[in-house]
Amino acid sequence: MELIFAIAITALAAGGIGLGLAFGRGPVRSSCGATDRLAKDRCEDCPLRRAAREGRK
Fold first, then answer.
1. What is the DSSP string of 1-57?
2. Who wins on pLDDT, 4 or 38?
């Protein structure tokens, strides 16, 4: 029973993310992307930010 409940919760979470993307909400932010609006950057050595600075995707 617990396995079915866990699968249902996971499916609801994935479905919610899919619906958000389908309705134009934008991509899911990574942990480094979520800190963009903080006054002090916490992850200057983040590989995503390093790639953006170097002009890579």
1. -HHHHHHHHHHHHHHHHHHHHHTT--PPP-HHHHTTTSSS-S-TT-HHHHHHHHT--
2. 4
For 40, phi then psi, to 5°, come to -115, 125
Instruction: In whole angstroms, give the CA distance from residue 44 to residue 57.
Output: 17
Angle ∠(28,34,37) on CA atoms, nearest 5: 135
pTM, whole model, 2 decimals?
A: 0.46
**Structure-derived torsion over alpha carbons of residues 20, 22, 37, 46, reported in degrees to the nearest 10:** 100
Distance CA 38, CA 53 (A): 18
The token pair at 40 is: 């002090």
- Per-residue pLDDT reduced to its tens digit, 4-34: 999 999 999 999 988 888 888 766 666 665 6
